[in-house]
């Protein structure tokens, strides 16, 4: 399972493997799903499968990587994005400790 190509990938059809592409069967977008089709559409999403979450996060990382970090002249954009996201993550992690330090007019 680990280290193998997806089952929907065919080198003759798709060309060189790209980790940012989903090679499975294309499904309807949510905007085109009718109300009576919604339960069946949600069941095909694989919300219950942690492997699907890992694959989706990997595809998102490679899409970001191809767009911002790997181009020849990428500049400071990926470094700034990483810095801002890390600041936000650490702020959320320490919010319970930071929220007690507030400026108030009266201390009852």
Roughly what percent helix?
40-55%
Q: Which range does the strand content fall in? A: under 5%
Oligomer: single chain
Q: What's the helix-strand series?
A: HHHHH
What's the number of extended β-strand segments? 0
| CA-atom Rg in angstroms | 21 Å
Apparent shape = extended
Main beta sheet, described? Answer: none
Structural class comes to: mainly alpha
Measured between the Cα atoms of the first and last residue, the distance is 61 Å
Q: What is the count of DSSP helices, taking H or I runs of 4+ residues?
A: 5
The overall average pLDDT, rounded, is 88
Unreliable residue runs = none
What descriptive keywords fit this protein?
108 residues, extended, mainly alpha, 5 helices
Q: How is the secondary structure organized here?
A:
Elements: H1 11-14, H2 38-43, H3 50-69, H4 77-93, H5 95-98
Can you tell me about this structure?
This protein has helices at residues 11-14, 38-43, 50-69, 77-93, 95-98. The termini are far apart. It has five helices and no strands. It has 108 residues and is mainly alpha-helical.
